[in-house]
Sequence to fold (639 residues):
Amino acid sequence: MKFYIDDLPIIFPYDRIYPEQYAYMCDLKRTLDATFFPTKRKLIYCSRTVPEIEKALSELKRLMEYRISSAESAEQKAKDQSFMGLGLTSRKNLCIHPEVSKEKKGKVVDARCRDLTNSAVCNKYREDPGSVEVCQFHEVLGEREPGNLIPPGIWTLADVLEYGRENGTCPYFTVRRMMPFVDVVIYSFHYLLDPKVAEQVSKEMSKDSIVVFDEAHNIDNVCIESLSIDLSRPMLDSAARSVNKLADKIDEIKTTDASKLQDEYTKLVEGLQEASTAEDSFVSNPVLSEDLLQEAIPGNIRKAEHFVAFLKRFVEYLKTRMRVLHVVAETPLSFLQHLKDITYIERRPLRFCAERLQSLVKTLQLSRIDEYSALQKRTHCLISRRSRLGFLLILEPFETDNATVPNPMFHLTCLDPAIAIKPVFERFSSVVITSGTISPLDMYPKMLQFTPVVQESYPMTLTRNAFLPLIITRGSDQVAVSSRFEVRNDPAVVRNFGTILVEYSKIVPDGVVAFFPSYLYMESIVAAWNDMGILNEVWKHKLIFVETPDANETSIALENYRRACDNGRGAVLLSVARGKVSEGIDFDHNYGRAVIMFGVPYQYTESRILKARLEYLRDAYRIRESEFLGFDAIRNAAH
Ligand code: SF4
Fold:
C-alpha cells in the first residue's frame, strides 16, 4: 500500500492500516521535521531484549522486501537494494569460534575473545605466524575492504551468524565494523545509555542520527542501573587478589622486559589519547573528556608499581569501611573527603584510574581478563563517583534487617536517571521514546529532564472486543482481598486468591499467567495453597509452572508451559511482576488467555535505595513519592 503524509510517500507493507498507526506516523514526521537535515540520516533503534531485536530486524527485512518488490523505477529498486540494516548484540550471541562460543558466561566469552583478538596478539601473529593463537574468523576480516564486510541488505542476527559460518568471518566484528556504514542499527539500550559500553560502541555514530527507544517504559531504571554498582565483600577480596597478581606480574616483567614499563611511562606523560581508542579496550572511562585525555596521567600513579600500591590502598580502605556494623549513607563528596583524610588518595588520580588500569593491562599483555573483573568493577565504581549530585553511597552491613551475620554491601547508586540519558539528548537531535505502557505521559519529561517536541498517546483499535478487565475486591465469600502488607498473609485472603485461580483455571482454555508482587510473597502463598489443597484443585484442570530467580530454570518452565498450552492440556504460570517472565516475553494467543495480577506490584518500599531515590525525585524534580510509586506499579501491571 502506498499513501502520502504531506508530500512524503509512505510505503506500507500491509493492506490495511490502523488509525493509531497513521496518527503515529504523522506525529513522527512532525517530530523529525522539527529540525531540518539535508542529509540522509541513520536510524539507531534501541530495544530491550535479544528476541525483540530479532523481531524488529525481521520486520525491517519484510518491509524492505516489500519495498523492493513494489518499487516503481529501477533507480528506486537499486536504492532499496543497497539499503542496509544490522543488529548488534554481545559476543556471546554472535561468536562462532568452536571453543569460545561454548563458554556459558558472557564475560568469559568476552575475555577469551579479547585474548585472541587484541592488537598486541594480532601484531605478534602477523610478524611470526604460529607463535601465538589468534581467532582466524577475526583475522580474515582485516584482509577485507572496510565497509564491505557483508553485502547490503537487512540481516537478522540469525542471518549474520549463518553468513559468518559460511564465509569464515566473525559475525560480531563484522557488525561492529560495519556500524558506520549501515542505514539502520538495532541494538539494546545499553549501547547508548551505559557509558562504559556507549563509549566503545556508539562513539562513531553521527550526530544527525535518529534515535528510537522502543519499549521504553523502564528506561529510567536502565539509566540508573548503568551508573550504579554494588560491591560485596567477596568482590573486594577478589579485587585484592587481582591487585596482588598485577604486582607479581610487574615484578616479573621488570626482570624480563623493563623497557616496556619505561615506554608506557613515557606514553602516559604524553597523554591518554592513544590508550583509549582501541576496539579491544578492557575498561572505558566515560568521565574523561577529550581535553582530559590529552592531559598527562597524575604523577603518583604513572609508575606501574606506584599505581598498584595506590590500588591496594584503595581496596584496603573499602574493606575497612565494610567492617562497620551500622547502615551508612553518604554523598560522594563526603566519601572522597574521608578517603583523602585516611589514605591521602586524591580525587584526580581516582578519575584516571580506569584508563591507567587499561594501559597497564595492555602493557603487561594480560590474558583471561575475566579473572580481573572484580578489579574492573572496582574501577568502574570510581566512575559513578564523579558527580556530586544525583549519586549516593549506601553501605548496608546486613542483608536483611533481622540478619545477624554480616554480609556487607556497598551500593554506589545513581539516583538520577537524567544523568545517563543526558549525553544522548545532547548529542542526537531527534530522540523518540516510545512504549505501549507509559502513563502518565508527563512523568518522563520530568524525570529525564527534556522538553518534548511532540507528546502523544494513542488509543488502540480492536477488531472485536477481546479484552475484559476485571478488578476483584472481594472473594466469593465476601471477604475483602488485598495484597496490602498487613493482610496479605491472612488465611482468608490467601484462600480467596486461591479460589480465584481455581475458578479461572476451570473456565479459561489453554494458558493462564498469574503475577505476584514479589518472589517472597509468591513462595509463601504457593506454600499456603499447597497446605490448603488449592494446588490439587488447580491441577485437575491445568499443569502448574513456577518462575524462579534462576534464569535457566525459568526458561525450562516457560518452554514446558508453552508445550502444555500448545497440546491442549492447559497450564498456569505463576510468575513475578518485574521478574524475567514479565519482561519481554509475549503471552499471545493460547499462551495467555487470561492474566491474573494478585495485588498491585508496588516496589519494596523499605529498600534504602528506593527511599533515597524517592527523596531525590522529590527534592530535585518535585515528583511526589506516591506519584512515582503509583506510576511505577501501574507501568509494571500494564506491561
Ligand atoms: S573474534 Fe568473533 S568468532 Fe573469534 S572469538 Fe571473538 S567473537 Fe568469537
User: Anything to note?
Assistant: The chain has three domains: 2-97+144-227+420-448, 230-415, 491-601. The longest helix spans residues 233-270.
